Amino acid sequence: MSENLTQEMPRFKSQEHAGPSPLLAPDEPAPFRLLNPEGRGRRALLVCDHATNFVPRALDGLGLPPDEISRHIAYDIGIAGVAERLSALLDVPAILSHFSRLIADPNRPPDDPTLAAAVSDGTIIAANQSLTAAELALRKATFYDPYHAAIASQLDRMLETGPRPAFVSLHSMTPMIRGERRPWEACILWNDDPRLPNLAFEDLRGRGLIVGDNVPYSGQDGHGCTVHRHAEPRGLANILFEIRQDLIDTPAGQEYWASLLAETLSSILAKADLDRNWNEERQRDGTQLHGRD
Predict the structure, then answer these.
(1) Cα–Cα distance measured from residue 107 to residue 159, given in angstroms and rounded to the nearest whole number
(2) HSE-up of residue 219 (Cα within 13 Å, Cβ side)
(3) How would DSSP label each residue in 56-68?
(4) Are the C-beta atoms of residues 171 and 243 closer than 8 Å to each other?
(5) d(CA 155, CA 46)
(6) Whole-angstrom Cα distance, residue 152 to residue 131?
(7) Which of 69, 156, 211, 227 suits 172 as a labelling partner, its CA being 20 to 30 A distant?
(8) What pLDDT score was predicted for residue 178?
(9) How far apart are CA 95 and CA 154, in angstroms?
């Protein structure tokens, strides 16, 4: 597993790639990777929204020096290595983005004003200061849309050919932001479906880990857009993990957390009732799916 994904990423061309774009040269990688699409292990799809800090040549580093592109503002440090190993350990499909979140954040609704952040953790993103609507639309068509189309297509295939899968979103969080240290080793974000979160809290806290509940962000106030967009409309059991980056910024740390999550997910996926469509639970309760996109 390598942290330098921008250098070692193999070429991956897919029928779901949006096709030629002035932003993505023919010798540059497609905007997502699909791993283990025919996995026959646990019933789950892994997604990784912020897997890499790749910026195509056409965007000229977004006007940032390399040391800024290597920061957490550009991607979720360490999480790609965890996702790759976890996909293999569980024998399940995984979809990883292959573009920096600073280009067009796939974990935002398409009309979110922070889709292409102008400022991130105190850093001014030069190339995002005066984006026109046409420029942003081209970024979305080249990177954002193919990634989400790949997730939707993979879920459709899995639902057509097998039992209902769980939806597992993988992220990492910086140990400190705006001068405040985050005490949690991992956090779980969720909205209103407790099937996986409750079991995961019990398992991980039972191992002595400090696990946050809907912190430092919350799945109940719009965070976790990819979950809201793909899992909730289908009523799929879902969970979003945030792992602290200083725990997974080395291959050894990635291996450890992938193995730990493999044990946890193997246990909770075997226990949870994945066959229920959670939208039917909402209907019985008289509640509506949150309108986030």
Answers:
(1) 23
(2) 27
(3) -GGGGGGG--HHH
(4) yes
(5) 11
(6) 28
(7) 156
(8) 74
(9) 9
- The contacts of residue 253 (CB under 8 Å, 6+ apart) are 78, 247
Looking at residue 284, its pLDDT comes to 80
The structure tokens listed for 13 are 């061309």
Tokens 């190339």: give the residue.
Answer: 127
Length of the chain measured in residues: 293
- What is the structure's pLDDT at 287? 62
In three-state form (DSSP H/G/I as H, E/B as E, the rest C), the secondary structure along 32-49 is EEEECCCCCCCCEEEEEC
Bridge partner residues of 170 (DSSP) = 241
> Are the C-beta atoms of 111 and 205 separated by less than 8 Å?
no
Q: CA nearest 71: which of 137, 123, 1?
A: 123
Amino acid in the structure at residue 254: Q
97-124: buried (b, 16+ CB within 10 Å) or exposed (e) per residue? Answer: bbbbbbbbbbbbbbebeebbbeebeeee
Nearby residues of 239 by Cβ (< 8 Å), 6 or more positions away: 166, 167, 168, 169, 188, 189, 190, 196, 197, 200
CB-based contact 169:224 (threshold 8 Å)? yes
| Beta strand 211-213 pairing with 186-189 | parallel
Q: What is the pTM of this model?
A: 0.91
- Between CA 155 and CA 201, with CA 164 as vertex, the angle to 5 degrees is 100
Grouped pLDDT means (10 residues each) for the chain, 293 residues: 35 43 96 97 96 98 98 98 98 98 97 96 96 98 98 97 96 88 96 97 98 95 92 97 98 98 98 95 69 37
Question: What is the edge-to-edge ordering of all strands in the sheet holding 166-173?
Answer: 32-35, 94-97, 44-48, 166-173, 238-244, 186-189, 211-213
The candidate with the shortest Cα–Cα distance to 267, out of 203, 187, 211, 212, is 203
